[in-house]
């Protein structure tokens, strides 16, 4: 079986440097909040064009930390897509707020701005919940329509957060999502474009006060320099709790791993784009749709996702030919038992529901050899004939 995401290939490329980086952490014995954490945060901020990057335990916590730092909670409505990984809506419910599901654009799978506008207006009219925030998702690695989403957010006085767990490093018209959002969150889960060797996450923001609150919240609400101001505290400020926080730190070991991975990340994004372009050129005649990236956008290709009317049969055919595939996502969040009670925007979920029936993600990673790409393309092409026979 070909690999869906080949983490071994990357290990081979950076193996020696990675081993020394990890050994250095072992020897340093500063396993929590060691020097690599600060160093990584600085490099990550620089890469992401942000004034502040705050690392944390995972990509789910990253969004929770932003919502909590913005004091979003019970009585608040947070607008998010339904066609996404569950964490996007889970965090809203976790802080006690209400996720309101908004349909996606059928071509890009990112939040559709006019549907968002209609959902906000509907919520405002009902006056049951206070519209507070929008979580845009860079699904499969591609940037959401940030200029349009930002305009809607500004018009209604909402904050825009970008959940870039899959899309960290993506751009639209040479700008990163953070150019339009109050904060960008990401995940370092191993299979994400920028992954570590375990769980990890981060928040990027240009808002200093927000960064400071997040820094405090991730370490049990510790007092920050900003909290202390002129006041002196004779002990470790960790032991002065200014707010109810949590434990959500990135391990020093993972920070060391990420420093090495960040060095090659831009090059890996280029490689993914070359592979995606070749896939699209050669797969277009054989599928209902190859992925479409928003005009002016650069995707990080967390997933390469096609559409096919006979998705499940194509998937079985590929499996029989040694090609693994995945369905992201088979059940939209508004149809999940856990989220079915939450409101849906007034324009409904037609695009989301249609996509869930047709999407199929193919093997994608920066080290996918041309021969393996050809194996994938050949197996998809051979389904045309096989499929036609069975249908006849
Ligand atoms: C993976 C993912 C998350 C959560 O990240 P974890 O590190 O697994 O907690 C959040 N949102 C989206 C869109 C994701 O793909």
Task: Note the main sheet.
Answer: 7 strands, mixed
Structural class given helices, strands, pairing?
alpha/beta
Low-confidence segments, ≥5 residues, pLDDT <50?
none
Written as H for each helix and E for each strand, in order along the chain, the element string is HHEHEHEHEHEEEEHHHHEEHHEH
Q: What coarse outline follows from CA principal-axis ratios?
A: globular
Roughly what is the average pLDDT, rounded to an integer? 96
Share of helical residues: 40-55%
Compact summary:
By secondary structure, the protein is an alpha/beta fold.
Layout of secondary structure:
Elements: H1 7-28, H2 35-47, E1 52-56, H3 59-69, E2 76-81, H4 87-94, E3 98-102, H5 113-126, E4 130-137, H6 146-156, E5 159-163, E6 171-172, E7 183-187, E8 201-205, H7 208-217, H8 225-228, H9 252-263, H10 265-283, E9 297-298, E10 304-307, H11 311-320, H12 350-358, E11 359-362, H13 370-391
Parallel strand pairs: 2-3, 2-4, 4-5, 5-7
Antiparallel strand pairs: 1-8, 6-9, 7-8, 10-11
Helix pairs in contact: 1-9, 2-9, 3-4, 3-7, 5-6, 10-13, 11-13
The chain binds pyridoxal-5'-phosphate.
């Amino acid at each position: 079986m070909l690999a869906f995401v080949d983490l071994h290939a990357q290990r081979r490329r950076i193996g020696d440097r990675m081993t020394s980086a990890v050994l250095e952490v072992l020897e340093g014995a500063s396993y929590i909040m060691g020097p690599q954490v600060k160093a990584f945060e600085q490099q990550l901020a620089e890469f992401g064009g942000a004034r502040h990057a705050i690392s944390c335990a995972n990509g789910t916590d990253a969004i929770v930390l932003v919502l909590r730092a913005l004091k979003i909670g019970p009585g608040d409505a947070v607008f998010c897509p339904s066609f996404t990984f569950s964490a996007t809506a889970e965090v809203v419910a976790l802080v006690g707020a209400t996720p309101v599901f908004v349909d996606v654009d059928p071509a890009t799978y990112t939040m559709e701005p006019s549907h968002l506008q209609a959902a906000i207006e509907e919520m405002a009219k009902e006056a049951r919940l206070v519209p507070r925030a929008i979580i845009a998702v860079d699904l499969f690695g591609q940037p959401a329509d940030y200029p349009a989403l930002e305009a809607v957010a500004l018009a209604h006085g909402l904050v825009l957060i970008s959940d870039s767990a899959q899309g960290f490093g993506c751009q639209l018209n040479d700008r990163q999502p953070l150019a339009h959002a109050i904060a960008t969150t990401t995940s370092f889960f191993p299979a994400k474009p920028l992954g570590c060797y375990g769980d990890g996450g981060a928040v990027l923001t240009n808002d200093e006060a927000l960064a400071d609150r997040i820094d405090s919240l991730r370490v049990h609400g510790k007092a920050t320099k900003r909290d202390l101001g002129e006041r002196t505290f004779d002990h470790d400020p960790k032991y002065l709790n200014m707010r109810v926080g949590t434990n959500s730190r990135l391990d020093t070991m993972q920070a060391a791993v990420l420093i090495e991975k960040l060095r090659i990340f831009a090059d890996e994004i280029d490689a993914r784009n070359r592979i995606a372009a070749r896939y699209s050129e050669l797969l277009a005649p054989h599928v209902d749709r190859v992925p479409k990236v928003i005009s002016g956008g650069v995707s990080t290709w967390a997933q390469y996702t096609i559409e096919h009317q006979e998705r499940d049969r194509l998937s079985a055919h590929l499996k029989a030919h040694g090609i693994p595939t995945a369905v992201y996502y088979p059940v939209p969040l508004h149809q999940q038992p856990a989220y079915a009670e939450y409101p849906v925007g007034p324009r409904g979920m037609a695009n989301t529901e249609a996509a869930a029936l047709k999407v199929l993600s193919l093997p994608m990673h920066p080290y996918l050899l041309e021969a393996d790409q050809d194996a994938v393309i050949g197996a998809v092409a051979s389904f045309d004939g096989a499929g036609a026979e069975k249908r006849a």
